[in-house]
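Name: Class I SAM-dependent methyltransferase
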Amino acid sequence: MVTMEYGRYGREVFGPHQQGELARLQALAAAYDPSSFRRLTALGVRPGWRCLDAGAGCGTVSRWLADQVGAQGEVVACDLHTRFLREGDCTRLTVVECDLAAPPSLGMFDLVHVRFTLSHMRNRDAVLSSLVSLVRPGGRLVISDGADVATPLSPNRAFSTAMLAQWNYLYQSIGSEKLYGLSCPDLMKQRGLEDVNLSLDVPPLAPGTVMTSFWKRTFQQTVPAMVAEGYLREETAVVAQEYLDSPDLCDLSVGMATTCGRVPPDGL
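Structure predicted for Class I SAM-dependent methyltransferase:
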């Protein structure tokens, strides 16, 4: 089994150069955007706010935020690679290409939002502290990240085995944590945030859904490496992929745990 000690999301794994990566990210966004938009609406995002979408990916949340804050506000969308942001409508966004581990000076924000990003970073604790420092007094931090509580219980053993192998592969190669989203409430409280709350959304896996498309595209990228490096047997991978193509598919995907917290009005 081979370990990539210094692997990074967006470089060794899931890079923008890989075929189908934009479609994979768009499927992920389509699956989780409705839940994200509900949470952000309930938070009270309004015209005039200055928002940071950290790890903006294909930019669906950034563009939605731009609609909410209007011309009086600003949305800064940052990512390690901004190709997919710039290929879409980014006229209402301030697009910044940067490493969240060493971001440029971005100023202070009413809202900092980060989704499915920190769980894939080895230095996530330091990055989280940096993001907290960007929230102005009284502002909000929203972290949505993975909480895989369902796939280990899948009725299809090959699929649950393949998902476990994939998490092992991603942990070893880039440091991904499959339950990171559930740890965020405590992490926010440790950093002094108040009014912290947690919610969990678990999308279904069913024939023809965007969530199923996301996992099919993800396996297309990860299975060759997992098999070659000994994380997964080829025959198990075949059965797992056939399960995602089956008209009888009825399962649950990885959950998205969303934690919201507020910086005290007097600051930290």
